[in-house]
């Protein structure tokens, strides 16, 4: 299921594109042309699509896509519920809509940098989703920690002589460790997102060779290839 945040970064990263709010609705523009627009509650996405092809698109997946209302049929436009799209598909639709608004040379330049279409941008989509999940987990852990601290105050337990006090102390240390791990992982995700922006994502920081796709699938925050990761730290270049 896609969300606005899965595609919002494209609105400001695609060449000549920028985002605006019109009557509270988020829209992506190239010049004065709107090529993507979201509903007020950000659950629906309308996007540019070739007029001669949109009927076939809707017919191919009527539960996912629909034509605009009658008064807007003259526009090159299709609508969809974001919940019916996966994040990668939503990104592809945004990029395809953007292509309709820019010169062919701009679109061609994008293709040279992204030979698989929006595919090379997929790491950011995944990292942003993982970033949101880690923030949510960190918030839950912080609540757990506050609850353990409150429990320790209520019992006024003596860790040395009260078995319950020892249990609370253990729980507190466990939650603290999980909070620390979540914060470290959050920092790793943010560093990986910076590498995506810099164009160095997927390149080993030790040997400069590409990091294998399998390793990135399993660990998208990886900084080194599997060979360098297996070397003792002191022997890495």
In words, what does this structure look like?
The protein has 2 domains: 114 residues, Aspartate Aminotransferase, domain 1; 114 residues, Up-down Bundle (Four Helix Bundle (Hemerythrin (Met), subunit A)). With 237 residues, the chain is α+β, with helices and mostly antiparallel strands. Strand 3 and strand 4 form a beta hairpin. Helices cover 52% and strands 13% of the residues. The chain contains 8 helices and 6 strands, in the order αββββαββαααααα. Helix 1 packs parallel to helix 3 and helix 5 packs antiparallel against helix 6. The protein is globular. A 6-stranded antiparallel beta sheet has the order 1-2-3-4-6-5.
Features:
single chain, 237 residues, alpha+beta, Aspartate Aminotransferase, domain 1, Four Helix Bundle (Hemerythrin (Met), subunit A), 6-stranded antiparallel sheet, 13% strand
What is the name of the CATH class of the largest domain?
A: Alpha Beta
- The CATH architecture of the largest domain comes to Alpha-Beta Complex
- The radius of gyration computed from the alpha-carbon positions, rounded to a whole number of angstroms, is 24 Å
The unreliable regions are none
Number of domains: 2
**How many β-strand stretches?**
6
The largest beta-sheet arranges its strands as 1-2-3-4-6-5
How much β-strand is present in the residues? 5-15%
What structural class results from the helix and strand content? alpha+beta
The helicity comes to: 40-55%
Largest sheet: 6 strands, antiparallel
Average the pLDDT over all residues and give the rounded result.
84
Helix-strand string: HEEEEHEEHHHHHH
What is the oligomeric state here?
A: single chain
